[in-house]
Amino acid sequence: MDTASRTGPKDKKQTKSLGFRIWQSRELYLFLLPAVALVIVFNYFPMYGITVAFKDFKPHLGIMGSPWAGLKYFDRFFDMPMFSVILKNTLLLSFYTLIASFPLPIILALALNSTPSQRLKKIVQTITYAPHFISIVIIVGMLNIFFSPSMGIVRNILSGLGLMDGNLDVLMNASSFPHLYVWSGVWQTLGWSSIIYLGALSAVDPALHESAVIDGASKFQRVFRIDLPLILPTIVILLILESGTIMNIGFEKVFLMQNAFNLSTSEVINTYVYKVGIREAQYSLSSAIGLFNSGINFILILLVNQVSRRLGQESLW
Amino acid sequence: MSTAIKSTSRDRLYDIVNTVVLLVLLLVVAYPLYFVVIASISDPKLVATGRVLFWPQNFSFKGYMEVVNYSPIWTGYRNTLIYTTLFTLISVLVSLLAGYALARKPFPGKTAITAFLLFTMFFNGGLIPTYLLMREIGLYGNPAIIVLLGAVNVTNIIISRTFIKSSIPEELYEAASIDGCSHFSFFFRIVMPVSQALIAVLVLFAAVSQWNSWFNAMIYLNDEAHMPLQMVLRDLIVSQSALSTASNTDSMGGDAAAQIYLVESMRYAVIIVSTLPILCFYPFVQKYFVKGVMIGSVKG
């Protein structure tokens, strides 16, 4: 009793006793509780579900009860003829998207930043940001309407100019799918992607421009010798981060654009997982394919983050 | 003297080229949007035969009439309003609460909890394991899944943490706590009012993403009555098979061509009707865009 009362407060002072500090922060744990609970249910529980990829999943046995199957489903996936097709399509679409959608926002940002007319700047910004808020369903719907074979506006304009007659077949054409997919994406993201560069440009010290003007530099020179080099770090980091998502082509738009005629170029890993898993109920096989994909994504993100850290920029975490 | 004149004429050339670039990009982005608007209010036949290019022709609201009379749209509208409101509330509140806690000075387990949350940014179970799990815990077919799945966005938590950390110093809380203020009342009386810009950005992004989402509904819902607007839209403007049944077939008698034109016209109208709420919001939230992207790009 005596010793306890003597050492008790002293201990508390030295280590600020763990229990006491936890009690002191009890409200903060309560603040974190909803986020942690939701993450456990919707993110960590499914991670446990990944074991399905290594099991012969039987719905009536559940995830726990199904027997182990080792790497059987991975072997099956790598032996499938579809394996190379969906891998190729995924990589092609990603690279094409990356190359096509990267330069234009930079050009837009540089042009916006150096235009003397604030009014034009405002109008261009308002209009070009807008498509970012339009849903994928509507974007794909617009593509279907505009490129409709017999009465879409594209067909009407082309035949009005005498450039074609008959029906337009781009929607039913496997070779035109990547172009439609990529350039409609450029259309949608152009403005929004430029915001980050505009932000970087606003951080450029005006004194640099002022002294360049005194030295007789033209506007063109100032944009390419001052603005561009100063936002180059931003460009490099974004490019590196983008390349980390190369195996992760969005499911939604590809899926909505798919039809019976363009599958040879439009079937990507994510859409294939959906078809095999949810439509055909081959849960173990599709989980294995999904895990293969997210494994590669995970490695890519780690890699990309290492690279950007090496370059002395802020990393993702 | 002569160099000064030379440089101003060079600059004028630059300005002209610059303006042309901006105008071209502006036109390319604006025209498809503009065309949807004029096509939706023009005579369906003139639109389908390529007579409507720059101005509306023979004002007609037949497409809109079809939309008004197509009841699944309004069910979808109602569902989406409910989903969007609840999802935004949950998502923003959860992000702010967690962001606030993580912005405070170290407490036991803070690093571990941060790592626990961050890990989900880099790795997830994937579609099929998530789907199977939702079936096993009985959330499949339950509309609650729409407002709960994805409500915690770790990026938003990090954004909130960074914002709160930089705008509300720890000393302010310490001073308040000496006066007997708890974290709870500090959060609602100080943090929430001070973080208006942050809240605007979080609300904007959460609301837009939920308004536009359809994928989770396709995977996890099985009752037509629970479907959000985007699923109805998908049937109307994406799936070709839905076209024939989309509008009331006997309203046009046997005239098949007119019927097809009308369906096409309805598709333009439905795009406008479903995007209207976002278009109404747009001017008010535009000033937060840049802030939002910049806050988002600053990682803690």
From TrEMBL, chain A:
UniProt entry keywords in alphabetical sequence: Cell membrane, Membrane, Transmembrane, Transmembrane helix, Transport
UniProt cross-references to InterPro entries, sorted A to Z: MetI-like, MetI-like_sf, UgpAE/MalFG_permease
Statement: the UniProt record of this protein carries the keyword Membrane: yes
ABC transmembrane type-1 domain sequence ranges: 87-304
Membrane topology: Multi-pass membrane protein
Main location: membrane
Transmembrane segments: 28-45, 91-112, 133-154, 190-208, 228-251, 283-304
One Pfam family per UniProt: BPD_transp_1
GO biological process: transmembrane transport
GO cellular component: plasma membrane
Location(s) in or outside the cell: Cell membrane
PROSITE patterns in the record: ABC_TM1
Family per similarity comment: Belongs to the binding-protein-dependent transport system permease family.
Protein name, as recorded: Sugar ABC transporter permease
Species in which this protein is naturally found: Paenibacillus sabuli
Automatic annotation (TrEMBL), chain B:
Matching InterPro entries: MetI-like (IPR000515), MetI-like_sf (IPR035906)
The ABC transmembrane type-1 domain, residue ranges: 77-272
Subcellular location: Cell membrane
Transmembrane helix listed as a keyword: yes
BP-aspect Gene Ontology terms: transmembrane transport
UniProt membrane topology term: Multi-pass membrane protein
Record-level GO cellular component terms: plasma membrane
Keyword Transport: yes
Entry's transmembrane regions: 20-41, 81-103, 115-134, 140-159, 186-208, 268-285
Database matches in SUPFAM superfamilies: MetI-like
Keywords per UniProt: Cell membrane, Membrane, Transmembrane, Transmembrane helix, Transport
PANTHER family: ABC TRANSPORTER PERMEASE PROTEIN MG189-RELATED-RELATED (PTHR43744), POLYGALACTURONAN_RHAMNOGALACTURONAN TRANSPORT SYSTEM PERMEASE PROTEIN YTCP (PTHR43744:SF9)
Name this protein carries in UniProt: Carbohydrate ABC transporter permease
Annotated source species: Paenibacillus sabuli
